[in-house]
Amino acid sequence: MRVALFITCVNDTLFPGTGKATVTLLRRLGVDVAFPRAQTCCGQMHVNTGYREEGVRLARHFADVFGGYDAVVVPSGSCGAMVREQYPKLAPAATGAVVPKVYELSEFLIDVLGVTDVGAYFPHRVTYHPTCHSLRGLHLGDRPLRLLRNVRGLDLVPLPGAEECCGFGGTFAVKNPDISAAMCADKVGNVMTTGAEVLCAADNSCLMHIGGTLTRQKTGVKIMHLAEILAATEVTEP
Amino acid sequence: MNSRDLILARVRGAVAGAPDVEVPRAYRGVTGDATGGATPAGGDRLIDLLAERLRDYRAIVHVVPEAEIASVVEEALTRRKTGRLVVPDGLPPAWLEREPRDREPYDTVGDDPELSAADLDGVDGVITGCAVAIAETGTIVLDAGHGQGRRALTLLPDYHLCVVGAGQIVAGVPDAVARLSPERPLTWISGPSATSDIELNRVEGVHGPRTLEVVIAR
Amino acid sequence: MTRTFLGMPASALQRSFPSNAAKAVRDSQLRFNLRKATHTIRDKRASVVGELPDWEELRQAGKAIKDHTLRNLDRYLVQLEEAVTAAGGHVHWARDADEANRIVAGLVKATGETEVVKVKSMATQEIGLNEALAAEGVTAYETDLAELIVQLGDDWPSHILVPAIHRNRAEIREIFQERMGEWGRPAPEGLTDEPRALAEAARLHLRERFLSTKVAISGANFMIAETGTLVVLESEGNGRMCLTLPRTLISVVGIEKLLPSWRDLEVFLQLLPRSSTGERMNPYTSTWTGAAEGQEFHLVLLDNGRTHVLADEVGRQALRCIRCSACLNVCPVYERAGGHAYGSVYPGPIGAILTPQLRGLDSELDRSLPYASSLCGACYEVCPVAIDIPQVLVDLRAKARHPRAERLGMAAAGWIFNRPERLARAQRAGGRLRRFVPKRLPGPMSAWTDTRDIPDIPRESFRGWWDRTGGGDR
Questions:
Q1: Closest residue, chain C, to A56 (C-alpha)
Q2: CB B189 within 8 A of CB B137
Q3: For the residues of C85-151, what is the DSSP string, one character each?
Q4: A129 and A187 together in one domain
Q5: Is it the case that chain B and chain A have 3 or more CB pairs lying under 8 Å apart?
Q6: Residue C392 lies in a domain
Q7: B148 domain-assigned
Q8: Which of A226, B28, C328, C411 is the most exposed place for a label (fewest CB within 10 A)?
Q9: Which of B12, B198, B212 to mutate to test the interface with C (most CBs of C within 10 A)?
Q10: Would the CB atoms of C400 and A172 count as touching at under 8 Å?
């Protein structure tokens, strides 16, 4: 099986650690993952901000880059949902073949590899935020939680109001800053009630948003992508 | 162009070339059972469900053998100290049979000739039958037929006593829609008048009858 | 297209959604009221929807029935007209708000009456009927408790189902005490803020009015083409009062409220109550066909921009809406911004797609509405007729005019993303300049850094690491 990593532009540029962790994890599970260097961005920012033509161009580019692989792994629920939910409406002819082969990381681990225990060790108190596009776009369900529950040493605490949006929403955070900040403040409040050391999610964009508030408020709570926790095997500092 | 023709022309222009749509009706239909189980419609289970769902709306509910309807009705009217009771045409007289007692009897008022709104506002209660009752939703449907009267009769008095026969109870909404006739003015009643307009908390009792009492005959 | 009127004061229309919302989000009383109310109803809805094993099948049927109706709307409207007329009713057609208001005012004046009672209706809110009638010397009395609160408080509705959701019990008590006397029977002495007492005050205030008023105006939740039947769902009994007691009944209904057959009610009478008030069934539903029980009945069919929406392949799904308001109750943006920020009688997610389609994207406010969402998808999930609100929002965003700075930024990003080597170069530049990125950003990006830190830009991008190490092998 030829497996490609779609790193996403946000991870590539701002969160390379998530990409490295994804590669480490997949190799540990015996997957020889390729990184097609021609990849750039799924086009979500353009489409969701109202620049459809540019988005369609990027969707076609995505199909060109990944068309030859059997599976494409994305460590992002949001970009995964963009491909799976929006490409069929934007550029059905060009992307029809590649779309069904795209998997968010936890889907790939559980549905394709059939693994729920990835052999990770992470002795910390963690709470998980199911981001909107993971939850309502891709319908990941409890896949990330099943993976986290099998991490040795990890104390998983439920997040109150987990299903509510953190207020990121891409350009929403800039176009409607007051509402976005109010939503984030409520999310942070909920995170603080859990007493968790680490807030985990399958999307770095949402984590960047919540994390930006967590550090601004000097809460001491760290953010970590799901891949980074699943890649940890020895005592890893969060 | 007149507005009728203009609107119709706009509609035709707007949908020209759009594909039509088949309606999938995979939901529980007319033969469906209220709780999705395999039990046949009717019977005690539906009666119990109807009673439970009506009580959820804070209706007062009695489930009695048919022979005891009159005594339950009399007890209810005595308890409420009903003075004047509207009785629509065609109400089974057996429901109102009374044994001589030492209490003050209530007066019955008919609607022929029609009572004025003010008259109706002045009576204490109304007793009716119904057309259909829906177990799953705790709903009673009146169709202004025999023993129910026109719509205002069950609207202005503050107390509505409704007698439901076991054979009138259906499992779900599709069964009720199939049994009812659209030519008749219908009133679907699910509990007493209520509002959720203040902080979205349900409060029983606004403009319609503030007390709904239901006698279900087994 | 002439600008469609949607029943809101000019003041609410002058500012964009973000600035309206910024004001609302700082009103702690409003925030508290909205949070409490929306969370209450959200939980109730989830519980009664969860009871039905076939909810998804009902939802798909509801969606398909509406789509089929819209596709054949011309045929069904004509069928409805025939059926209503055959049952002794009179049918009128109104292309816009002005025409609808003129028709209704004419019908009321023909009765010689100067007062009408009203059932809560979105269509008459939308066309500003009360104001139009007042200009003709006719007083319209709202009888729904929440509408009464709004009317007495000289206020604007902020929710589809519960127009006074922004008011709490203490505020309602104050409005009743101060204003009921000006409109009719004053509030009882010693009125408390107990919801039961407030409901009782409304009952007493309106009772005499119901008994004496000769003309009523309503909307309708559904119209059945096959039979000519109209359907109104309500809770309090004020609807029954208006529909039953007056001699003349005038119903103003949007043309999209049609259902083909009587049987279709078996779907919608399950979808609507559970989605709106979160009850298995609302307390009262009335259905009538033509001139019921000797009443004079007029039906005014309203276009007011609907055919314009119908012409849009993506946007027309908004016409499936049955006004349940589940999308408002679950929306994190609505919960914090409140309904007034949307500048329309249709607030929340459905308003964000309906208002700009009905009114156009000409004003700053209407252009900002498609962006009044984080695209979290909660609205689509709860919609009983499966309107893909995020999809329509994104589609409208593509139609709206964009600010120049944003256009330039998006073009630059697009240029970079079109070639991976450009992206790599930009990342290397970012890595070199990382120490110079300030904690507080200027311009539009300050909106982010006002409350949030920006992440540290890494020295090396992922692709830089991959190139250097061969994916960690070297």
A1: C414
A2: no
A3: HHTT-EEEEESSHHHHHHHHHHHHHHHT-SEEEE---HHHHHTTHHHHHHHTT-EEEE-SHHHHHHH
A4: yes
A5: no
A6: no
A7: yes
A8: C411
A9: B198
A10: no
Cβ neighbourhood burial of A112 (10 Å; 0-12, 13-18, 19+): middle
Q: How far is B198 from chain C (nearest CA, A)?
A: 6
For C265, residues 6+ apart whose C-beta sits below 8 A from its C-beta are B173, B177, C222, C224, C231, C259
Q: Is residue A236 included in any domain, yes or no? A: no
pLDDT confidence bin for B98, thresholds 50/70/90: confident
Write the burial class of residue C88 (CB in 10 Å: 0-12 exposed, 13-18 middle, 19+ buried). Answer: middle
In a domain, A119, yes or no: no
Chains touching A, CB cut-off 8 Å, 3+ pairs: C
**What confidence tens digit (pLDDT) does each residue in C251-275 have?**
999 999 999 999 999 999 999 999 9
Alpha carbon distance A5, A69 (integer Å) = 10
CB nearest to C397's CB, from A50, A132, A177: A50
* pLDDT recorded at residue C447: 82
ipTM of the assembly? 0.95
Domain containing residue A101: 3-112
The answer to whether residue C354 is domain-embedded is no
- For residue C435, the one-letter residue type is R
Asked if residue A133 and residue A105 are part of one domain, the reply reads no
Per the prediction, chain A carries an average pLDDT of: 96
Provide the edge-to-edge strand list for the sheet that holds A222-225.
A155-157, A125-128, A198-201, A222-225
pLDDT digits (tens, 9 = 90+) for B12-68: 999 999 999 999 999 999 964 444 443 444 578 999 999 999 999 999 999 999 999
| Residue C216, token pair as written in the block | 């009523």
- Tell me which residues of chain C have a pLDDT lower than 70: 1-13
Structure token digits, residue C182 = 């000006």
Q: Do A7 and A81 belong together in one domain?
A: yes
- Picking from C22, C375, C463, the nearest residue to A12 by CB comes out as C463
Domain range for B141 is 34-217
Based on the fold, state whether residues A91 and A157 are members of the same structural domain. no
The answer for C 444-463 residues in CB contact with B (under 8 A) is: none
DSSP class of residue C284 equals: E
Chains touching C by CB (3 or more pairs below 8 Å): A, B
Q: Which residue of B4, B189, B201 is in closest CB contact with C283? A: B189
- Pair A106, A134 in one domain: no
Same domain, A94 and A145: no
Closest residue in B to C65 (Cα) is: B23
Instruction: Provide the number of structural domains found in chain A.
Output: 2
Provide the CA C195 distance to its chain's centre, in angstroms: 25
Residue B205 C-alpha, separation from nearest chain C C-alpha, in angstroms: 7
Q: Residue B201: its chain C contacts at CB < 8 A?
A: 40, 195
pLDDT tens-digit readout, C408-426: 999 999 999 999 999 999 9
Q: Is C35 on the interface with B (CB under 8 A)?
A: no
The answer on A8 and A106 residing in a single domain is yes
Residue B2: its pLDDT value, please?
Answer: 97
**Tokens matching residue A197:** 């050391």
